[in-house]
Amino acid sequence: MRPKLKSCSYCAVQRNRSKPDTILRMTVADASISSAAPAASATSTGVDAAGALPAKACAAAEALVELKNVSFGYTKDRQILSGVNLIVPRGKLVAVMGGSGCGKTTVLRLLCGQIRAGGGEVLVGGRSVAAMKRDEMYAHRRRLGMLFQFGALFTDMTVFDNVAFPMREHTELPDEVIRDLVLMKLNAVGLRGTAHLKPSELSGGMARRVALARTIALDPQIALYDEPFAGLDPISLSVVGQLIRRLNDALGMTSILVTHDVAESLKIVDYIYFISEGKVVAQGDVATIKASTDPFVRQFVDGQPDGPVHFHYPAKSLAEDFS
Amino acid sequence: MKPVLRILSRLGNATVGGVERLGFAARFFAAILRQSGTSVVRPGLVVKEIYQAGVLSLIIVLMSGMFIGMVLALQGYETLVRFGATESMGVLVALSLVRELGPVVAALLFASRAGSAMTAEIGLMKTTEQLSAMEVMAVDPIARVVAPRFWAGVISLPLLAALFSTLGIYGGYLVGVRLIGIDGGAFWGQMQAAVDWRYDVMNGVIKSAVFAFAVSLIAVFEGYDAKPTAEGVSAATTRTVVTSALVILALDFVLTVFMFRGGVH
Could you tell me the pTM of the whole model? Predict the structure, then answer.
């Protein structure tokens, strides 16, 4: 028997079953960016330097997600993460940034329990993810929503069925309630009109927004975003960015955003961690990062081709190769 | 390293790799059986896949059955006419199809048409992170994606093999009786007398059921185990067709040895 799940959206829909306009307005007012003010202000966590201090400040708020000295490697020879410490307070939108292949996505996979840390602890709500048994893991995952890099929409289903998928799998809700909920979620991302389309009929930006609607289908406690801005045009990029911020606030979620898009992230997040070579090399709120003189942060924020992260992959000297 | 040692080392690696993969396939099969509850509780999932794997394979299976039956009749006539035994054509066509060609050729066609499609679909779902997305949504991809496809294959193939044999016999009838002019009564009468329900028909059904398990398992396993790249999916699809063909023919030999012993019922 599948567990009955009554989300807050469900209760709201039930209360307003006879008033479809009200149902749709709820999401428009809460999350949709179509009629809202543009940028969300990044709230400061009162951190003033990249280093040890911010962690304390972050820990002062209730930590929902915590990585304690986490190490991980897909092979014994190559460690992707080595001794990562990271705190995500409840209700905040935190970005994990770094170059390609630095281990950002690995952090998300550790949180989902798809992989287990080789060392250290990954805690969600105080519970160690690695210690969870199968049933606990599935209960844990039902509290998560994850947006994959390219959406990962089910290509054999319509947009409607994609968003309805988690509801049908995990709830006993009647079809008409699911219909209303799906339209609410699609309305929140501005794509109610695409419900009947297949993912192949959507643009990249639209597909990402549908995937976002599916991510929030069950009103998750924690939302994980894996490179949500990759390959989007400037308008779609801004739309997706604002949606992530507004959905986080409207639904009371805690969000972790893995990205290397500095400009867009700085507009929407509360706090930023920089990862390089498997370690957290810098962290701080938006103001701190903008003002930082740390060479790594500067190279990343200003997009400098060379710096602590070298332009050239390690190789023999030019003289040796061309002699 | 010396060439001989290098060859031995490669052989050793290939053997260990093969055994490891076989072990993984066995564990995968056990996982499918464990996770088949969803397919029982929600038969709609299996029915949808039966349409994809079975119904959409009908054309190729029926057409092939018909042509093979027609060719059997033509070739059979060539031989039987020398011995004045053309009335036995019905027996020849029916036994060839029910015992051998029906289960084997239908399974080969099924592996090429539906098995490869299953592998490609699951492999692409893996490549595009759809399986990962399901996992993160607390939905087991083996229960939701793999098991329904596996059972759809297991159910579809024996039915397709039965239809293959039926159309084949009809094709034999068209050529033997309608075209060549063999007596229709002798064609059907001898067939009815010589084809045993349990010994011939049931053994044929058992064969196609065994092939169905083998082909479906290979197809879903190769898809699930595919490297998540375009090249990986392509290689997995090829492996499905090649491995299925070899396994079908090897199993056919083994089953025939046990089932048919020179007419001893």
Answer: 0.82
